[in-house]
């Protein structure tokens, strides 16, 4: 529970022990658990759609939408706990932008990779026995490879053209860097104090969908190292050999987005003090036994009047004599 959610106390009945405030931020362990769950949701829905919808009349758009909707669902569930990163690139961008402690970054990364790996294990466990052969694959790993990220003949364009279109390593890296930079920049922009709202999951999900629509033909659409690692562990060996591209590329894009966010923050106009909301705090007195009682109105008014009178006397004494 945040400080703003704290229950109101009657000043006449409350004690000092009852005023103990709960932590404003969840513990690191709780936030890590939230990242495990959120990344699990994202990868299970997105890669699950990539693996199965192609065989029941689906297409790349359906897969991209599944990833985007999965991101929206995950952020809506865990956003108020961990920030809803569900992506090591977002975590790195947040740290560079000053939104997250650097000591928390490795924990977030480990949690995200763990969540993606659990999702990969679930997808492998529920794979129908005869499906690889029915789809022309010689093993379950080969079928799961259709949900992995790669370049060259393993990319979407390369596989669809039977190898006639060669997506180079350079092209794959550029795509992952640029699109991840856009994604992380949007996440950092819509999660500022000024811009944060209930629509934040929607903006992130739509941006994620748009980036995947561009990236899928080139690399299968990663922009998320955890998503790539979680499936590569269960795919054919080539997926693990090429997965470094989908770790380095997105993280490089996150660095650029984080630096841009810091530059924008330096140039942002500060919020005017007079526009900030203020809470009226009741004046209380603490008795010897620890009880809180409201200060009498006459005491406050008398003290105020006394202070005003003292101020007037001081002004009269310091004023120069007039002839």
Residue share in helices? 55-70%
Give the uncertain stretches in residue-range form: 1-12, 14-22, 272-276, 316-323
Helix count from the secondary structure assignment:
13
Rg is 28 Å
- List SSEs in N-to-C order: HHHHHHHHHHHHEEH
**Sequence of strands across the biggest β-sheet:** 1-2
Total number of β-strand segments?
2
Mean pLDDT: 81
User: What fraction strand?
Assistant: under 5%
Structural class: mainly alpha
Largest beta-sheet characterization: 2 strands, antiparallel
Question: What overall geometry do the principal axes of the alpha carbons give?
Answer: globular
The first-to-last residue Cα distance is 67 Å
Account of the 3D structure:
The protein is an all-alpha fold. Helix content is 60%, strand content 2%. A two-stranded antiparallel ribbon has the order 1-2. A hairpin with a 5-residue loop joins strand 1 and strand 2. The longest helix has 25 residues.
Please render the helix and strand layout as text.
Elements: H1 28-52, H2 60-82, H3 88-96, H4 105-125, H5 131-134, H6 140-144, H7 156-160, H8 169-190, H9 200-219, H10 225-232, H11 237-242, H12 245-267, E1 284-286, E2 292-294, H13 297-318
Antiparallel strand pairs: 1-2
């Amino acid at each position: 529970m945040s400080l703003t959610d704290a229950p109101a106390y009657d000043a006449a009945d409350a004690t000092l022990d009852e005023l103990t405030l709960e932590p404003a931020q969840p513990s690191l362990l709780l936030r890590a658990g939230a990242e495990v769950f959120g990344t699990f949701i994202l990868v299970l829905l997105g890669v699950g759609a990539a693996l199965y919808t192609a065989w029941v009349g689906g297409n790349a758009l359906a897969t991209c939408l599944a990833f985007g909707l999965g991101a929206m669902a995950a952020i809506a569930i865990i956003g108020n706990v961990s920030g809803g990163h569900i992506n090591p690139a977002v975590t790195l961008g947040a740290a560079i932008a000053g939104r997250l402690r650097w000591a928390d970054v490795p924990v977030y990364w480990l949690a995200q990779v763990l969540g993606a790996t659990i999702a990969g294990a679930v997808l492998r466990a529920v794979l129908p026995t005869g499906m690889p052969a029915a789809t022309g694959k010689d093993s379950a790993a080969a079928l799961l490879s259709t949900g992995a990220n790669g370049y060259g003949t393993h990319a979407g364009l390369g596989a669809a053209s039977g190898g006639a279109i060669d997506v180079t390593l350079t092209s794959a890296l550029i795509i992952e860097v640029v699109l991840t930079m856009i994604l992380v920049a949007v996440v950092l922009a819509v999660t500022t104090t000024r811009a944060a709202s209930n629509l934040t999951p929607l903006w992130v999900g739509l941006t994620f969908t748009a980036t995947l629509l561009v990236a899928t033909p080139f690399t299968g659409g990663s922009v998320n190292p955890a998503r790539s690692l979680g499936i590569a562990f269960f795919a054919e060996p080539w997926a693990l050999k090429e997965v470094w591209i989908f770790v380095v590329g997105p993280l490089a894009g996150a660095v650029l987005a984080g630096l841009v966010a810091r530059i924008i923050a330096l140039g942002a106009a500060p919020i005017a003090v007079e526009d900030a909301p203020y809470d009226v705090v009741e004046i209380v007195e603490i008795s010897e036994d620890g009880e809180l009682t409201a200060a009498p109105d006459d005491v406050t008014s008398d003290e105020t009047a006394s202070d005003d009178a003292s101020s007037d006397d001081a002004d009269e004494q310091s004023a120069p004599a007039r002839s």
